[in-house]
Amino acid sequence: MRSTVFSLTPRFSGEYALAKTASQETDWAGLQHLIKFYNSRRFYAEIGLPKPNDFRDFPEYFVLEAIPHAIARVRGAEGKSPREAVEFILQLLKYNDNSGNPYSDVFWLAVLVWWSRILSTARK
């Protein structure tokens, strides 16, 4: 997932495979790896908040865009999204900062809203 030289399709497949294998039985290992990778690229380590958007590296943008989508698809045994997945997506929305980015973030925000829609948080 780190290299921006190779084709995007295998990297997307890897991200979705990690999301698919994330479960309570694996202690959410796939989910944790996705969050850790994303955070290593787009979060300030010292404060734990997202960095301002920077869409100049298009291949990296598309890889990093796929990670929240994969995370939003993770489900527990009861079909609900794990708390970590919900908090991750909502944190991206809450702290979105496009200052200094030469590109609009309208599509980024649209997909974040779309992915927040597919989170499953309802309780019976």
Describe this structure in words.
- This is Transcription initiation factor TFIID subunit 2-like isoform X3.
- InterPro entries: TAF2 (IPR037813), TPR_TAF2_C (IPR057991).
- It comes from Camelina sativa.
- Residues 13-113 form the Transcription initiation factor TFIID subunit 2 TPR repeats domain.
- The protein is mainly alpha-helical and 124 residues long.
- The protein has one domain (8-118).
- Helices cover 55% and strands 3% of the residues.
- It is built from 5 helices and 2 strands.
- The protein has helices at residues 8-21, 29-42, 58-72, 83-94, 106-118; strands at residues 43-44, 49-50.
- It has a two-stranded antiparallel sheet with strand order 1-2.
- Helix 1 (8-21) crosses helix 2 (29-42) and helix 1 (8-21) packs parallel to helix 3.
- The longest helix has 15 residues, at 58-72.
- It is globular, with a radius of gyration of 14 Å.
- The protein starts with 7 loop residues before the first helix and ends in a 6-residue tail after the last helix.
- The relative contact order is 0.16.
- The model is unreliable at 4-8 (pLDDT under 50).
